Amino acid sequence: MGVIFSLLAGLMITLQSIFNARLGEKLSFWHTNAFVHGSGLIVAFIILLFNEKLNFTPIKAVNPHYLLGGAMGVVIIFSVMKGITDLGASYAVTILIVTQIIATAVINYFGVFGEPIIVFTGIKVFGLLLIVSGLLVYQLA
């Protein structure tokens, strides 16, 4: 199921990014950001009401750093809208993907944020370089 949800997330991130950029052209980026997060909060809350008990008590045991996701989301939405508006969707998303690949590789290498440490063998490094190179060739062609 992880692969299916990852594919769905990739598609939704792409569509959301383009939709947000178009909305940001009519509204300001910050109005769009507020609308995106507000509508997302409403949808998440409705899903929560039907699928979970309303119990936020366990949040007390969470590392405070992990509570920054919503604030990071504001920066993400703004940055993606600005990137797509300035560069176009394909170029902006290519840069985003390369950055994510490098950042997650560093996070996994050092095992930060509770992620398992991944030993980078020569073949894994080659694979990462191949992915990044492929994205860059695609973009520059």
Structure description:
The structure is a single chain. By secondary structure, the chain is mainly α. The protein folds into two domains: 1-87, no CATH class; 89-141. The chain has helices at residues 2-26, 29-51, 69-87, 89-110, 122-140. It is globular. The chain starts with a helix and ends with a helix. Pfam families: DMT_YdcZ.
State the secondary-structure class.
mainly alpha
User: Would you list the SSEs in sequence order as H and E?
Assistant: HHHHH
How many structurally independent domains? 2
Per the principal axes of the C-alpha atoms, what is the gross shape? globular
Sheet bearing the most strands, described? none
Give the averaged pLDDT, no decimals.
93
What amount of the residues lies in strands? under 5%
Q: What is the overall number of helices? A: 5
User: Percent helix among the residues?
Assistant: over 70%
Distance between the termini: 34 Å
Low-confidence stretches: none
Radius of gyration: 18 Å
Number of strands: 0
GO cellular component, one term: plasma membrane
InterPro entries: YdcZ
Organism: Alkaliphilus metalliredigens (strain QYMF)
Protein name: DMT family transporter
